[in-house]
Design a protein that fits this description.
The structure is a single chain. The chain has about 110 residues and is mainly α. It has 5 helices and no strands. Helix 1 (about 1-25) packs antiparallel against helix 4 (about 55-75). The chain is globular and about 45 Å long. The relative contact order is 0.15.
């Protein structure tokens, strides 16, 4: 039960941080349009950001990032050894990012075509 609270707390903190710093601020959204994260989606999935709802994409990406970070923090909370925590974090973080970014990129590529 403690892990569920940890996950929810981390998810909400990270998502609200993204929401207030990037999505709701016009300046933050403009900087996001030139970010490396968006470049990844443009290059890997050949995503045309002019054909999609950009604010909705940024919001979905913020939720995805919040999930990735919250899940990783929750899992490494199980371990006591700091070195083991770091190793487990990398083992979880990289495949989870690849998987969820692939799902997100394919989803928005299909939406782009409609």
């Amino acid at each position: 039960m403690d892990y569920i609270f940890t996950f929810i707390f981390c998810f909400l903190v990270i998502y609200l941080l993204y929401l207030f710093v990037i999505i709701l601020r016009k300046k933050g959204l403009e900087k996001f349009k030139t970010s490396k994260q968006l470049e990844y989606f443009k290059i890997k999935f050949k995503l045309d950001t002019t054909k999609i709802n950009f604010k909705k994409f940024a919001n979905t990406l913020a939720m995805t990032n919040a999930f990735i970070i919250a899940f990783t923090v929750t899992v490494i909370d199980i371990f006591d050894n700091w070195i083991l925590k770091i190793l487990v974090a990398f083992v979880i973080l990289l495949p989870l990012m690849y998987l969820l970014y692939t799902i997100l990129g394919n989803h928005y590529k299909k939406k782009e075509g409609k």
